[in-house]
Protein backbone atom coordinates (compact mmCIF):
# COMPACT_ATOMS: atom_id res chain seq x y z
CA UNK A 1 0.00 0.00 0.00
CA UNK A 2 1.30 3.45 -0.90
CA UNK A 3 2.15 5.68 2.03
CA UNK A 4 -0.37 8.43 2.75
CA UNK A 5 0.31 11.69 4.57
CA UNK A 6 -2.36 13.90 6.14
CA UNK A 7 -1.27 17.56 6.13
CA UNK A 8 -3.53 19.93 8.07
CA UNK A 9 -3.38 23.71 7.82
CA UNK A 10 -4.95 25.47 10.78
CA UNK A 11 -7.03 28.63 10.57
CA UNK A 12 -10.48 30.12 10.99
CA UNK A 13 -13.25 29.99 8.37
CA UNK A 14 -14.59 33.10 6.63
CA UNK A 15 -13.16 35.94 4.56
CA UNK A 16 -12.55 38.17 7.61
CA UNK A 17 -9.83 35.75 8.79
CA UNK A 18 -8.28 34.76 5.45
CA UNK A 19 -5.14 36.92 5.59
CA UNK A 20 -4.61 36.95 9.37
CA UNK A 21 -1.62 35.52 11.22
CA UNK A 22 -3.80 32.75 12.71
CA UNK A 23 -4.55 31.48 9.19
CA UNK A 24 -0.96 31.13 8.02
CA UNK A 25 -1.28 27.32 8.21
CA UNK A 26 -4.10 27.38 5.66
CA UNK A 27 -2.11 29.78 3.46
CA UNK A 28 0.75 27.24 3.38
CA UNK A 29 -1.70 24.54 2.27
CA UNK A 30 -2.97 26.82 -0.50
CA UNK A 31 0.65 27.03 -1.68
CA UNK A 32 1.02 23.22 -1.62
CA UNK A 33 -2.26 22.74 -3.49
CA UNK A 34 -1.19 25.29 -6.12
CA UNK A 35 2.03 23.32 -6.69
CA UNK A 36 -0.04 20.33 -7.77
CA UNK A 37 -2.58 22.41 -9.72
CA UNK A 38 -5.42 21.27 -7.43
CA UNK A 39 -8.26 23.18 -5.78
CA UNK A 40 -9.82 22.44 -2.41
CA UNK A 41 -13.29 20.92 -2.35
CA UNK A 42 -15.65 20.49 0.58
CA UNK A 43 -15.60 17.06 2.21
CA UNK A 44 -18.85 17.09 4.17
CA UNK A 45 -18.25 13.85 6.07
CA UNK A 46 -15.19 15.29 7.84
CA UNK A 47 -16.24 18.98 7.87
CA UNK A 48 -13.12 19.99 5.98
CA UNK A 49 -11.91 21.33 2.68
CA UNK A 50 -9.63 18.77 1.10
CA UNK A 51 -7.27 18.03 -1.77
CA UNK A 52 -6.03 14.49 -2.49
CA UNK A 53 -2.85 14.58 -4.54
CA UNK A 54 0.80 13.60 -4.93
CA UNK A 55 3.70 16.03 -4.95
CA UNK A 56 5.18 14.12 -7.90
CA UNK A 57 4.26 11.04 -9.94
CA UNK A 58 4.83 7.88 -7.91
CA UNK A 59 5.37 9.89 -4.72
CA UNK A 60 3.43 9.32 -1.50
CA UNK A 61 -0.25 10.15 -1.45
CA UNK A 62 -1.00 13.45 0.20
CA UNK A 63 -4.26 14.66 1.72
CA UNK A 64 -4.24 18.42 2.26
CA UNK A 65 -6.85 19.39 4.86
CA UNK A 66 -8.31 22.69 6.00
CA UNK A 67 -10.82 22.23 8.85
CA UNK A 68 -14.01 24.25 8.30
CA UNK A 69 -14.41 24.74 12.06
CA UNK A 70 -13.01 27.57 14.12
CA UNK A 71 -9.40 27.11 15.24
CA UNK A 72 -10.22 25.99 18.79
CA UNK A 73 -12.47 23.22 17.39
CA UNK A 74 -9.93 21.77 14.92
CA UNK A 75 -9.66 18.41 16.71
CA UNK A 76 -12.97 16.91 15.60
CA UNK A 77 -12.37 17.43 11.87
CA UNK A 78 -8.74 16.24 12.12
CA UNK A 79 -9.73 13.07 14.01
CA UNK A 80 -12.50 12.49 11.41
CA UNK A 81 -9.99 12.73 8.54
CA UNK A 82 -7.61 10.29 10.23
CA UNK A 83 -10.47 7.85 10.77
CA UNK A 84 -11.84 8.30 7.23
CA UNK A 85 -8.46 7.40 5.67
CA UNK A 86 -7.41 4.88 8.32
CA UNK A 87 -4.34 7.04 8.93
CA UNK A 88 -2.22 7.26 12.07
CA UNK A 89 -0.59 10.15 13.92
CA UNK A 90 2.75 8.92 12.55
CA UNK A 91 1.91 10.54 9.19
CA UNK A 92 0.00 13.60 10.44
CA UNK A 93 1.62 17.00 9.83
CA UNK A 94 -0.06 20.08 11.32
CA UNK A 95 0.97 23.50 9.94
CA UNK A 96 0.20 26.40 12.28
CA UNK A 97 1.07 29.91 13.39
CA UNK A 98 3.55 30.23 16.25
CA UNK A 99 3.90 33.45 18.30
CA UNK A 100 6.95 32.12 20.18
CA UNK A 101 8.97 32.19 16.96
CA UNK A 102 10.06 35.35 15.12
CA UNK A 103 8.20 36.25 11.94
CA UNK A 104 9.90 34.60 8.96
CA UNK A 105 11.32 31.68 10.98
CA UNK A 106 10.10 28.06 10.74
CA UNK A 107 10.62 25.30 13.30
CA UNK A 108 9.77 21.62 12.95
CA UNK A 109 9.06 19.14 15.73
CA UNK A 110 7.11 16.07 16.72
CA UNK A 111 5.00 16.13 19.87
CA UNK A 112 5.61 18.34 22.87
CA UNK A 113 3.43 21.01 24.38
CA UNK A 114 0.90 23.19 22.60
CA UNK A 115 2.28 26.50 23.92
CA UNK A 116 -1.18 27.92 24.54
CA UNK A 117 -2.28 27.20 20.95
CA UNK A 118 -5.95 26.22 21.22
CA UNK A 119 -6.03 24.55 17.80
CA UNK A 120 -3.19 22.21 18.75
CA UNK A 121 -4.70 21.58 22.16
CA UNK A 122 -8.00 20.51 20.58
CA UNK A 123 -6.24 18.22 18.07
CA UNK A 124 -4.22 16.56 20.87
CA UNK A 125 -7.39 16.06 22.90
CA UNK A 126 -9.44 14.67 19.98
CA UNK A 127 -6.61 12.36 18.82
CA UNK A 128 -5.65 11.26 22.33
CA UNK A 129 -1.98 12.15 21.80
CA UNK A 130 0.40 15.05 21.19
CA UNK A 131 2.67 12.82 19.12
CA UNK A 132 2.23 14.32 15.65
CA UNK A 133 4.48 16.43 13.43
CA UNK A 134 4.24 20.21 13.50
CA UNK A 135 5.43 22.85 11.08
CA UNK A 136 5.54 25.95 13.28
CA UNK A 137 5.41 29.10 11.16
CA UNK A 138 6.70 32.11 13.08
CA UNK A 139 4.39 35.12 13.25
CA UNK A 140 6.25 36.93 16.07
CA UNK A 141 5.14 38.31 19.42
CA UNK A 142 2.44 40.94 19.87
CA UNK A 143 3.79 44.49 20.22
CA UNK A 144 3.65 46.19 23.63
CA UNK A 145 0.80 44.91 25.77
CA UNK A 146 -1.42 43.73 22.94
CA UNK A 147 -3.31 40.54 23.78
CA UNK A 148 -1.98 37.50 21.90
CA UNK A 149 -5.51 36.48 20.82
CA UNK A 150 -6.06 39.93 19.28
CA UNK A 151 -2.64 39.90 17.64
CA UNK A 152 -3.06 36.59 15.79
CA UNK A 153 -6.46 37.68 14.44
CA UNK A 154 -4.95 40.75 12.78
CA UNK A 155 -3.52 40.82 9.24
CA UNK A 156 0.22 40.88 8.70
CA UNK A 157 1.85 44.34 8.57
CA UNK A 158 2.70 45.81 5.17
CA UNK A 159 6.38 44.98 5.77
CA UNK A 160 5.48 41.38 6.66
CA UNK A 161 3.12 41.17 3.65
CA UNK A 162 6.11 41.81 1.38
CA UNK A 163 7.98 38.82 2.88
CA UNK A 164 4.94 36.57 3.34
CA UNK A 165 5.01 34.81 -0.08
CA UNK A 166 8.57 33.60 0.56
CA UNK A 167 7.68 32.47 4.10
CA UNK A 168 4.72 30.48 2.75
CA UNK A 169 6.90 28.93 0.04
CA UNK A 170 9.60 27.95 2.55
CA UNK A 171 6.97 26.51 4.91
CA UNK A 172 5.51 24.44 2.06
CA UNK A 173 9.06 23.30 1.22
CA UNK A 174 9.46 22.24 4.88
CA UNK A 175 6.35 20.05 4.60
CA UNK A 176 7.79 18.44 1.47
CA UNK A 177 11.14 17.86 3.20
CA UNK A 178 9.46 16.09 6.13
CA UNK A 179 7.57 13.82 3.73
CA UNK A 180 10.54 13.15 1.45
CA UNK A 181 13.41 12.90 3.95
CA UNK A 182 11.97 12.52 7.47
CA UNK A 183 11.89 14.90 10.41
CA UNK A 184 15.58 14.93 11.38
CA UNK A 185 16.86 15.70 7.88
CA UNK A 186 14.12 18.32 7.43
CA UNK A 187 15.05 19.94 10.75
CA UNK A 188 18.71 20.06 9.73
CA UNK A 189 17.80 21.78 6.47
CA UNK A 190 15.15 24.17 7.81
CA UNK A 191 16.66 25.12 11.18
CA UNK A 192 20.10 25.78 9.65
CA UNK A 193 18.74 28.77 7.74
Folded structure, characterized:
There is one protein chain. It contains six helices and seven strands; from the N terminus they run βαβββαββαβααα. The model has no long low-confidence stretch (mean pLDDT 94). The chain has one domain: Rossmann fold (3-Layer(aba) Sandwich), CATH 3.40.50. The longest helix is centred in the C-terminal third of the chain and has 24 residues. α1 packs across α5 and α5 runs antiparallel to α6. It has a seven-stranded mixed β-sheet, sandwiched between helices. The radius of gyration is 15 Å and the shape is globular. The protein is α/β, with parallel strands linked by helices. It is 37% helix and 21% strand. Its EC number is 3.1.1.29. It comes from Kocuria subflava. Catalyzes the release of premature peptidyl moieties from peptidyl-tRNA molecules trapped in stalled 50S ribosomal subunits, and thus maintains levels of free tRNAs and 50S ribosomes.
Spans of 5+ residues with little confidence (pLDDT < 50)? none
How many structural units, i.e. domains? 1
* First-last Cα distance: 35 Å
**Biggest sheet details:** 7 strands, mixed
CATH superfamily: Peptidyl-tRNA hydrolase
Report the CATH C-level class: Alpha Beta
Descriptive labels:
37% helix, Rossmann fold, seven-stranded mixed sheet, 193 residues, 6 helices
In short:
This protein is an alpha/beta fold.
List the helices and strands and how they pair.
Blueprint: E1 4-9, H1 24-35, E2 41-43, E3 48-54, E4 61-67, H2 75-85, E5 92-98, E6 106-110, H3 118-127, E7 133-138, H4 148-152, H5 158-181, H6 183-191
Parallel strand pairs: 1-4, 1-5, 5-7
Antiparallel strand pairs: 2-3, 3-4, 6-7
Amino acid sequence: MTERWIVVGLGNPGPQYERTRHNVGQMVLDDLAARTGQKFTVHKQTRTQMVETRLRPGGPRLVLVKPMSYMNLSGGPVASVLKFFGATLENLVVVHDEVDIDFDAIKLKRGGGEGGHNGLRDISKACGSKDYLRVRVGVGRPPGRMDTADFVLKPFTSTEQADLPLLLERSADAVEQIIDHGLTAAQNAVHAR
